[in-house]
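Predict the assembly for these two chains.
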Amino acid sequence: MIRYILKRIFIFIPTLIIITLLGFIISINAPGDPVERMVSSAQSGGEIGTQSLSQVQDKIFWRKKLGLDLPVFYFSLSSCSRPDTLYRIYDRSEREALDRLISQYGNWNEIQQYADGLKSFYSSLIAFSPDSNLVKQYNKNTVSENMNQLKFESLALRSFYEDNIITARINKISDILAAYPFLASFRPAFINIKSDYESIKTNTSSWKNYIPRIAFYKTQNQYHRWLFGDGEFSRGLIHLDFGTSYTTRQPISDVIFSKIGWSMFFAMLSVILAYFISIPVGVKAAAKRGSRFDKYSSVILFMLYSMPSFWLATLLLMTFANTDVLHWFPASGVKPPTGYPDAAGFFEKVKLSLPYLILPAICYTYSSFAFLSRTMRVSMIETIGQDYIRTARAKGLPENKVIWKHAFRNSLLPIITVFANIFPAAIGGSVIIESIFTIPGMGYETFLGIQTNNYPMIIAVFTITGFLTLVGYLVSDVLYALVDPRISYK
Amino acid sequence: MKESAGHTERELAEGTKNHFSFKKYAWAQFRKNKPAFYSYRILIFLAIIAAIAPFIATDQPLYCKYRGVSMFPAFSFSNNCEVKDPQTGEVEKIQYDIADWKRMDAESIIFAPVPYTPQKTDIDNSGYIAPGDKQFFTTKDGEQAELPTRFRHWLGTNKGGEDVLSGLINGTRVSLSIGILSMGIASVLGLMLGAMAGYFGDRKLQTTRGSFWTFLIGIIFAWYYGFSVRSYAIADGFASSSLAMLGQLLLSVFIFLLVTLLFFYLGKLAGKIPFLSSRVFIPVDSIVSRSIEILMSMPILILIISVASIAKEKSIINIMVIIGLTGWTPIARLTRAEFLRVSSLEYIQAAKSMGFKEFRIIFKHALPNAIAPALVAIAFGVASAILIESSLSFLGVGVPPSTVTWGSLLNGGREQFSAWWLVIFPGLAIFLTVTIYNLLGEGLRDALDPRLKR
């Protein structure tokens, strides 16, 4: 038995790793740059199209804090033409532009020279402060306008990779530089950049793109850091650190653990309710097979089974939480909008919350109830057909005893195994039901996360749900092994 | 009905008397199952609706004769037509998709049965007009009148004045194609993997050490040349159009297969080298079974939601593909079990002893006898795929707002509970379709279950 459980746990671990991998793959493919997201929510304003020094520093800080300055995985499969240090460039669009340039021309040395030239050109532009002579000589506006234009163009140039666009931008900058004598100090640097770009195009070595190369990064990578933390900013998944929410800047784990209660409550409640109702229904239908009860219950269960939960939820809301029809229940939330009174005890709170819980509980329960009843019925019918049931009847035992003492226990097995299907379904279904009833749980938080592109939240919910699902399977397997003495696990 | 029942009996009798054909027997069994058989008929009806949806729910008339010129706007590929006024010689250009057909002075005009295009607003009837309410129409002269019966919104309109019935008809298309595409992918994956796992088991597929390792390395190379090198080409294809996307993907898959094939033959050569020529078994069954186990213990709905929410291009096809890629496990499981049974049968042994290629034995001899349980799983799979898609479009996750589906129609009713028609009709459509597929699945299971055979 213990060996069997150990074996199950042994399968449990790779599945868990795959779930974390999937979560990680989803998170690195999420659109947008997390750094931009953090910086822009931290501070807004500043000149459009330019980056102040503090902004750059901010970006570098957030990149480090989010661990994005590391390579993605333990190893990477890339081409011979790519340097294995490309991930160090902090700006996402710049990195992509350089990567695309490499995939076009394959000559990193030239591209690096060009990129470095652009970078120092840009910082010299930033550092440039027009002295008073200049301002006297030219209109003040002309100077600042042209400087801004130059900054904008040269920053934009860093995120372009198409040849015609780069050429056009380079020509534009050259024109501006040529037009004003006070910009003369920048000319030589820019002529260098221009010739660097030309040499990228002439000295191509795109064959290098077709030679694969595997680079290994040991534990200094994003996935490892995401799992185990880096001891500085992140404590890692194993310490339940899921990162920072994009919207509220709170740690995700705080948000989730304040919300998970309601989700677990409803999942548990629905599973328990479904088992309590479905077992008698299934047994009765099977015991009186072909009776009117059996026929009607079969049809109703089948219909419930095919019923989309969001439709039922909307129908219930429309009928029972609608001021025009019947206003028996409140439409959303889990407690009165004003909150509980201060003096309210536990039972008082339950009483206040009860009307809010009934409709969601129905929606959570009915589909697993239908599924369980059908399973119970089939398994009971199979058991009743067994020889030992006939023997029991032949002994003259009352039907009640035959059903509940002899048949019932043996037909419980399939119902236990489907626990593994029901529990995850309850958690997964929570996204839909919680968003319809605005229950402040994990599912509703996911829904909000999707609407606000709060990807760390979605990934965290995915990982946690995956873990809970696995635990559900583990529990049902162990229960199965415990209940059925016929099965030996060796 | 009597006739068909008699026909069934005769067919059954003939089937058993002369030569027993399982297909005929199963079909007869299936026909006896009334709910399943009616579901089958309704499904055919729905398929027809889905196929001709653009012609039965469109505001472009099927036929129109205007100033002596005959037009077939609904069927036409071009979007405009030039009409010359016979008296003045003035040329009027009619643009099919924005022309105001309902107020046109046409000599004769035949409208589609539902004269509204989904997602096109009817300004006169915006703001939740109930099916039974008075519906309005602005005549040519700019007067408000009651809507002619021909143009009635039989199932009402939504907030923007879009016709619900037309949306429903269009949604049929989406729903059925979800079933076809996602379960198509799932069936191909499930049948292939299940067949291989069941047929080869752990100790039947032999190869040399050399070709095994060469093949593994080859897959890395194939991935590299097919997808890594071309990643930007694929990304650009995704960004431009669905045709370019498909082309780029196909090209990548082609390169992938080509390189794999190359390494396969290289591996055969490598297998001739002394050290590399020792035999190894490929544990196909273990690999497939573990993958099924892993995929089955995953929160699929949340996985689909997460993937759909990060997709840059929101598209219904994405969702179909994700459902297909995650939904193959039941099919594979059943096929595997069936193949375990079939592959020990005598006729398969006979085929083997005749020296047939394994590929041929699997797909030509074993698969037709092992496909029955998979059909049942596919029917149930379609039902759950439709449920997943409609839940997603109900939540507005991963589905572009430009696509009208049953789920998105229902979502419109959530904002306004008094608009009961927006909740009842799309919900009923989803419910009906899911029930049909579930009934079909049950019917198939009963008809194909060999234990019921006498």
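Chain A has a mean pLDDT of 82. The beta strands of chain A are 75-79, 212-216.
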